[in-house]
Amino acid sequence: MTDSERHIGKRKLLIESLREKGIQCERTLRAMMQVPRHLFLDSSLEDLAYSDQALPIAAGQTISQPYTVAFQTMHLEIQPGEKVLEIGTGSGYQASVLFHMGAKVFTIERQWELFRFSKLILTKLGIRYTGKFGDGTEGMPTYAPFDKIIVTAGASRVPPKLLQQLKPGGKLIIPVGEGIQKMTLISKKSEKIFTAKVLGDFKFVPLLEDKSV
């Protein structure tokens, strides 16, 4: 669990590169500066931890490219104290960034191996969150409504139950499509009125449904 001066130095360089690529939300960048990304990866990948690229984790999944993490987080405009639901815990890196944004974090993971790993690392780092093993498309109705929802896997469609669990005035960001996805920001104006804005092309692992638990 070492976070050395060398790691911190590499993290500063990464943050500066994200700023140069157009991430101008300083709150997002400060949160990412606080998260030791190398601890969410296998030790064999430590030298690549602060490169701006997606990297493999367990269960055939990936930890998102830092630019993608920053991009999604920035567009949600998360405020301290907001309830944020994450679909796809993965290694736990994005959940940690959300926590450092001041969010009350709720997160779902459908791969048991990743659910266990993320629970271990997030607990060790003192990240307070509510986690669930199961189908992310079902959301967490027990804790709804949420101020913000972030989906970290490519979806063929926007899961309707996530829209239902979003608070009026809230935002959901999700990559939609097959192969290359369209990053889509959905704003809930009222219980029946939504607006959507496409923010660009991204590539994610697919969002898998109907996980038996």
Mean pLDDT rating: 95
Portion in beta strands: 25-35%
Q: N- to C-terminal separation?
A: 31 Å
Number of helices: 6
Q: Provide the succession of SSEs.
A: HHEEHEHEHEEHEEE
In which order are the strands of the major sheet placed?
Answer: 5-4-3-6-7-8-9
Kindly state the number of beta strands: 9
Structural classification: alpha/beta
Contiguous low-pLDDT stretches (5 residues minimum) are none
From the alpha carbons, calculate the radius of gyration and give it in angstroms.
16 Å
Helix % is: 25-40%
Q: Main sheet?
A: 7 strands, mixed
- What characteristic shape results from the CA principal axes? globular
Task: Give your account of this protein's structure.
The structure is a single chain. The protein has 213 residues and is an alpha/beta fold. The protein is built from 6 helices and 9 strands. It has a 7-stranded mixed β-sheet. Helix 1 runs antiparallel to helix 2 (26-33) and helix 2 packs across helix 4. The radius of gyration is 16 Å and the shape is globular. The model has no long low-confidence stretch (mean pLDDT 95).
